[in-house]
Write a structure and sequence with these properties.
337 residues; alpha+beta; 2 domains; four-stranded mixed sheet; two-stranded antiparallel ribbon; phytol kinase
Length: 337
């Protein structure tokens, strides 16, 4: 079971989804069903509880895992009086929700934004071309690419290539794309909580009397996932969480186009399993709970109108106007990656 957790060693992390997908293909779910309905012991119950409650849900963020779990969704069945029935039922609900995300992913809108922050064009990826250096920054034209290069991309291209290459080599391009889809889905489904978070964020970053200071505030929306739906959604600044540094390449991008780019941040903490729950965790294990297995940033582009309204909110004094706040959020919901 510990093969599906996250080792403390950084270079060994990021493989649990591979091991799990292979195990499911080899019959893990059927074996789990037999263990649940076989001879029970307290130790086995503890192990199964950890697997079903702690490990399985967090693996539903992977497209590759869900593709293996999809045909197994009805395998687990327990008697009504089984002590683990409640947590199995909870996981089944979480799995169904994740599989709905999986199905929706195949029919998702594939529109993407031109990365040149003043362009505002949102087009199918086939109508955009990617930067030959980083491979992930998209443009609608050569003119936009040149303007963006001069403005910011010449300073960030290499760093973005390194960040993207590391993520793709560890987790796979399809899984990263699915995580971006999970963030977009959560963003669309949580307008009201996000509105409240924006008010809190604005209250915490005002007053600003200097354009340079105001420009330095980079709006980040953090989505923390333990399963296929986020457990936390927060507006933060780039330096809010000391152990969650935001790469400078993304900070520079957002600063270059104030209000036009919000950084959507997908995070999932590492999971460290202690072999004996009665033994106190070491300092290293406690420290590891603050580390993240996933930390993916997806620049989110909003319209010029939304950027203008956001800047008005940033400059407002004596409280946020509800009508302006609502209009800003309505416009923000129309944005794109």
């Amino acid at each position: 079971m510990e093969a599906f957790a996250d080792p403390q060693e950084e270079h060994l992390r990021g493989r649990s989804h591979l091991y799990f997908a292979r195990s499911v293909k080899a019959g893990l779910v059927e074996t789990l069903e037999k263990l649940l309905n076989g001879l029970r012991t307290p130790q086995l119950d503890r192990e199964l509880r950890t697997l079903i409650e702690g490990l399985l849900p967090r693996l539903t963020i992977y497209h590759s895992v869900l593709s293996e779990l999809r045909p197994k969704r009805a395998v687990l069945s327990l008697s009504d009086d089984h002590p683990l029935r409640p947590i199995v039922d909870v996981f089944q609900v979480e799995l169904e929700q994740a599989l709905r995300r999986y199905d929706a992913y195949s029919t998702r809108s594939r529109l993407r934004a031109c990365a040149e922050g003043t362009c505002q064009k949102i087009l199918p990826p086939s109508s955009l071309k990617s930067c030959g250096g980083c491979g992930i920054t998209l443009y609608c034209s050569g003119a936009c690419q040149k303007r963006h290069w001069r403005a910011v991309h010449r300073r960030t291209c290499v760093a973005l290539h390194e960040i993207n290459s590391a993520s793709v080599s560890r987790f796979g391009a399809r899984n990263i794309s699915f995580m971006r889809f999970l963030v977009m889905t959560a963003f669309k489904e949580n307008k009201d909580p996000l509105t409240d978070e924006l008010v809190r964020f604005l209250d915490g970053t005002q007053p600003r009397t200097n354009d340079a200071v105001r420009r330095a505030v980079v709006p980040i929306i953090l989505f923390e996932f333990e399963g296929a739906t986020p457990v936390n959604i927060l507006f933060i600044q780039a330096d809010t969480i000391p152990w969650l540094p935001i790469p400078l390449a993304y900070v520079e991008l957002a600063q270059q186009y104030p209000g036009r780019i919000f950084l959507h941040l997908f995070v999932q903490r590492i999971l460290v399993l202690h072999r004996d729950s009665s033994v106190e965790r070491t300092k290293e294990e406690v420290k590891a709970t603050k580390k993240y297995l996933h930390r993916h940033i997806f620049p989110f582009y909003v319209s010029g109108r939304c950027a203008e309204m956001y800047q008005l909110l940033r400059q407002s004094r004596g409280g946020v106007l509800q009508s302006l706040l609502d209009a800003t959020m309505d416009e923000m919901m129309l944005g794109s990656y």
